[in-house]
Amino acid sequence: FTSLNPTSLLAFSWAKLNRKITIYMTDGCERSERDHPSYLKILRKAVLPKVDAAISASRSGMRLVKNFGVSEERIFQSCLCAPPVCSETLGFEERKYDLMFCGQIHERKLPLLFTEICRIVAARRGRCRVLVVGDGPEKNNMVARLSELEIDFYLASDLSFENVLSSYESARLLIFTTRLD
Length: 181
Known about the structure:
By secondary structure, this protein is an alpha/beta fold.
């Protein structure tokens, strides 16, 4: 489970009552969790020591779950994505796209900030070719804004994991706009 909402807490309780393995996963870190409400901190201190394992996306997240009472031998790291494998033969200028957005196209990932960066790059360079890899509730707004700005873009919403990794080498720069990460 990844949250402490009522449904997750119910599932956690059922699993414990039925002697099932429980694993907590977080992509949070010490900084991102610092300002959470005190009731969530109390819930974490009550629940996390009882999990069979905790998985975190970062070392800071590993420290976070340890601080909430998970013993070190039950904490594991699993990065959110594999590092991209870039071609050593493809030069910077040979890359098809200037900028790349890769992720959920959701308000918290600031897709319209990305489009503003595209506008600035296009104004300064005379053009901006963009690769957008992802999907989400803000996709139509992002596409509309890129079209309105007359940005040359390609949208890839359904790439396999392997194709997402290989798409990194087609852009000069990944712009990772986000509120939290």
